[in-house]
Design brief:
Elements: H1 3-10, H2 14-18, E1 54-59, E2 62-67, H3 74-77, E3 82-85, E4 93-94, E5 100-107, E6 111-118, E7 132-134, E8 149-152, E9 160-161, E10 165-169, E11 173-179, H4 188-191, H5 201-204, E12 216-221, E13 230-234, E14 237-241, E15 247-252, E16 258-263, E17 278-284, H6 338-341, H7 346-352, E18 378-380
Parallel strand pairs: 1-8, 3-4, 5-12
Antiparallel strand pairs: 1-2, 2-3, 5-6, 6-11, 7-10, 8-9, 10-11, 12-17, 13-14, 14-18, 15-16
Bound molecules: 2-acetamido-2-deoxy-beta-D-glucopyranose (3 copies).
Signal peptide: 1-19
Keywords: Signal
Region (Disordered): 308-344
Length: 381
């Protein structure tokens, strides 16, 4: 087709060339983190020692998550997590087949959301890790992990760098949202609001969580309310109330004296206002790259990109064309029953992330107090 050569030329400038069609605050305008390739790239040579931190979130078969570079908990390694991808891409580490036990990929008008289950000890997450929350802000403003970036082709088939995203992950569950749109009611920052990190996946990124495992689905979905927003309709007018995550603690200020603080609301909602409906779901048997497990062991490095993965810089790779069917080895991914034992309720999910510090590891500083978020009213129409 005629446009293809032009797209090739423009690929490395996609964000500047095509940004006009995105509302303010959606696309990242900065450069890639220093450990990342300049643009999302597929395929790349296997390097299970990589420190690259660029996530692509393109489809159920082509996505990445952050996990530690070596065995650790997420809270201990927030600043240095590395990218693990289902495909050999972005110079990142490759998720071995058999790691994932179920994945849901939701496309909405405001974000792409992917969540699932698996044995993430295979991605260096310590067994029993209660997990953590990662986002492009962090204590230093350089992101958790530092230089972590997220890109998606989901909007227009072109890799677009996404400014606002959040990932929750523990030893057997993850959820990731990349915010791809905004309007005057919902900014990308609100739709990817990352300061409710003790509330867990089902609160912050509502969806149908298939704890029993074995479900691999790609769906359209309605747009959720931004995390923590509760609509109230009165006289034809919609307003929203929100809450701020409650926390108390003690910090040592510049005067060297310990000072206690309280932020947030004492009453925690029991759940999100609603769980959006999914539609047009397409199910598949598993997510698999077919790469031999022996070439993905700890520290393994290839000498060239693995065969069978189509070369592209993600200009418009239809996910369905990716060569999962040409896999040299038929490795089936069984659904570990362990994900089912950890299952079910929102309160379990909440506990999964109970050990977090939403103020950042740098402690409290001026500007961190989020009381102003409480019961803020946003008027629509
Ligand atoms: C990469 O992440 C940094 C830190 O969050 C951000 O400033 C920058 O805009 C991101 N770049 C891209 C291309 O996404
Ligand atoms: C923004 O989008 C949401 C979700 O589609 C919608 O409910 C809301 O009315 C929109 N706001 C404006 C001002 O159009
Ligand atoms: C792979 O194995 C699964 C489960 O045994 C089987 O259903 C499927 O047909 C196999 N695929 C190929 C290509 O052999």
């Amino acid at each position: 087709m005629f446009l293809y050569p032009a797209f090739l030329v423009l690929a490395s400038h996609a964000s500047t060339v095509f940004s006009t069609s995105f509302p303010a605050g959606v696309l990242a305008t900065g450069t890639q983190g220093v450990t990342n390739p300049p643009v999302p790239t597929m395929p790349t040579t296997i390097d299970q020692t990589s420190m690259a931190r660029l996530l692509s979130v393109n489809s159920i078969d082509d996505f990445c998550i952050f996990a530690p570079p070596s065995l650790a908990t997420i809270p201990d390694t927030e600043t240095i997590e590395v990218a693990w991808c289902t495909l050999p891409r972005n110079n990142a580490r490759v998720i071995p087949d058999g790691t994932l036990s179920g994945v849901s990929f939701l496309k909405t008008d405001f974000y792409v959301q992917i969540y699932g289950f698996g044995d993430f000890t295979k991605l260096n997450i310590a067994p029993n890790d209660g997990g953590g929350e990662l986002d492009p802000h962090g204590a230093t403003g350089a992101g958790n992990p530092i230089g972590g970036n997220v890109s998606t082709t989901i909007v227009d088939g072109i890799d677009e760098p996404i400014a606002e995203w959040m990932l929750y992950i523990d030893n057997n569950q993850f959820c990731l949202r990349a915010c791809t749109n905004a309007n005057s009611t919902y900014s990308a920052a609100f739709m990817c609001w990352h300061e409710l990190d003790e509330m867990g996946c089902e609160f912050v990124m509502p969806g149908t969580y298939n704890y029993q495992g074995g479900i691999y689905e790609t769906c359209d979905a309605d747009v959720a309310y931004p995390p923590g927003w509760y609509p109230e309709v009165s006289g034809g007018t919609t307003t929203f109330s929100t809450f701020a995550q409650y926390a108390t603690g003690v910090y040592t200020g510049n005067n060297g004296l310990p000072t206690s603080y309280t932020v947030g609301d004492t009453v925690t909602p029991t759940g999100p206002f609603s769980t959006p409906s999914s539609s047009n779901c397409v199910n598949q048997a598993t997510v698999s790259n077919g790469i031999a497990l022996a070439s993905l062991t700890t520290g393994a490095k290839g000498t060239a990109p693995p065969l069978g993965f189509s070369s592209s810089t993600d200009i418009s790779p239809p996910a369905s064309s990716l060569p999962t069917s040409s896999a040299p080895v038929n490795i089936t991914s069984s659904a570990p029953s362990s994900s089912a034992t950890n299952s079910a309720t929102g309160s379990t999910s909440r506990n999964l992330f109970g050990a977090l510090f939403f103020l950042g590891s740098g402690g409290l500083s001026v500007g961190d107090v989020v009381i102003t978020m409480s019961y803020r009213d946003v008027q629509v129409n």
